[in-house]
Write a structure and sequence with these properties.
With about 270 residues, the chain is of the alpha+beta class. It is built from three helices and 19 strands. α1 packs antiparallel against α2.
Length: about 270
């Protein structure tokens, strides 16, 4: 029985306690005040007046039950109607720049910016997500994406040709057939690292998925910009990954749900070393 059902049961028991059936109601019966949580007698005696003597009629017993039930219902509403915690609104955003002005994507290939919480957390840093990779013909889009371990990927074929996807990184048992205008079952990927997918029916088709640990991540766009959010308040390690360069950048803080702007400057002479 859930908490809400338990409270409803308590309310109903309270109503029955303060409102005995008419056949069982006797002069001198007491009304229990359960609203205090101690179940003690109020000391107030409700007696049934003689028939026909309306002038001596006291407050009928059911009004006591209604009052107690009302107090319980109000307490229940106050307890269970509390608003859930507000979702995080913070973010870390910025751009990736080279000291010589070269663009990020042409210099070192795809770049992923990652944000890792420094304080250990009992729960996953961000919710599990579902990513979609789509084929419109002879290629899949996006050709590179980043997810966290435990996320799901669904492959969608919007074209008119068949595909059969596989990845040596995931083992021979992972074979994903895609008929025209169809979608695969969501594939959960737990193993971290770069996962390259190929098509056994088309040798020129391939794409990659970077699987990170439990971090916030974003692929830098062609203009070198990135956005990580929403992110809870806290202290994080900002780092980058690419096929030719990876490592920590600096420590950043997200405070009061405000966006933090961070420009990442790279030295081209260090790339590939």
């Amino acid at each position: 029985m859930g908490a809400v059902e338990a409270w409803i049961s308590v309310v109903m028991v309270g109503i029955r306690s303060v409102n005995p059936p008419a056949a069982d109601w006797k002069p001198g019966a007491r009304c229990l005040l359960l609203g205090t949580g101690r179940g003690h007698s109020s000391g107030v005696t409700s007696r049934i007046p003689p028939r026909g003597d309306a002038r001596k009629a006291r407050r009928p017993p059911w009004t006591c039950g209604a009052a107690v039930a009302g107090s319980f219902l109000l307490a229940s509403c106050a307890l269970f109607s509390s608003a859930p915690p507000a979702p995080p609104t913070g973010a870390v955003t910025g751009s990736l720049r080279f000291l010589e002005g070269r663009s990020a994507d042409t210099a070192i290939g795809p770049v992923v910016v990652m944000l890792e919480p420094l304080e250990p957390r009992a729960e996953r840093s961000r919710p599990t997500q579902l990513f979609q990779i789509t084929s419109g013909g002879d290629r899949f889009d996006p050709s590179f994406t980043a997810i966290a371990g435990g996320d799901f990927v669904v492959f969608v074929n919007q074209g008119s040709v068949n595909h059969r996807l596989f990845s040596a990184h995931l083992g021979q048992e992972v074979q994903i057939p895609l008929s025209p205008t169809s979608a695969s079952q969501p594939l959960r990927i737990d193993r971290t690292g770069e996962v390259r997918f190929f098509c056994s029916l088309h040798s020129d088709e391939s794409f990659s998925v970077l699987v990170t640990s439990d971090v916030f991540s974003a692929v830098v766009d062609v203009d070198g910009r990135y956005y990580l959010g929403p992110v809870p308040d806290g202290t994080y390690r900002l780092s980058i990954w690419s096929p030719r360069l990876e490592g920590p950048v600096r420590t950043v803080e997200v405070v009061d749900g405000r966006p933090t702007v961070e420009t990442i400057w790279l030295d081209p002479d260090l790339i590939g070393r």
